[in-house]
């Protein structure tokens, strides 16, 4: 019983620390956020912070990794569509579900490099998926295609977020999936 209580306390503490960083990132870039500010906002002492994270960047990496894992988990749980279509659909659902977090990630303090990292994390094995979906063995073309689609999707998502997510995640996924299929028609 004691371990469960400690686990709950640890989860709560980490959640408060993460929320504090997110709140601070609304007003300043990560390189201006201090551990002291995080601790003051979370109402914890520095040693508690350092028990879980080494610095604000480590904390931010943890938040990003949780987001990546959430999308990867939903990809493992879903069925029915091709892997590429399914991946795109789940990405846009995740962005919409976590829109406040994504808005912070793409504020004036950050560029869309996070989106490229995000798409890259969930597009693991995409070249293999492209090979099977589009019957191509040209690894060089598929590598270029992968990078083209990765940066294109990141740019489209960035624009969607910056515009306030006016379109639904389904509309955005449909657009991107059509673009991918059209782009793939050029691969021989």
TrEMBL record:
Q: Which Pfam families match?
A: TetR_C_8 (PF14278)
Domain spans labelled HTH tetR-type:
11-71
Source organism, top-level taxon: Bacteria
Cross-referenced InterPro entries, in alphabetical order?
A: Homeodomain-like_sf (IPR009057), HTH-type_Tx_Regulator (IPR050624), HTH_TetR (IPR001647), TetR_C_Firmicutes (IPR039532)
Is-annotated flag, keyword DNA-binding?
A: yes
Q: Which residues bind DNA?
A: 34-53
Enumerate the PROSITE patterns for this protein: HTH_TETR_2 (PS50977)
Signal sequence extent = none
Query: Keywords, A to Z?
Result: DNA-binding, Plasmid
One annotated GO molecular function is: DNA binding
* Keyword Protein transport appears in the UniProt entry: no
Full protein name: TetR family HTH transcriptional regulator
Q: Which organism is it from?
A: Clostridium acetobutylicum (strain ATCC 824 / DSM 792 / JCM 1419 / IAM 19013 / LMG 5710 / NBRC 13948 / NRRL B-527 / VKM B-1787 / 2291 / W)
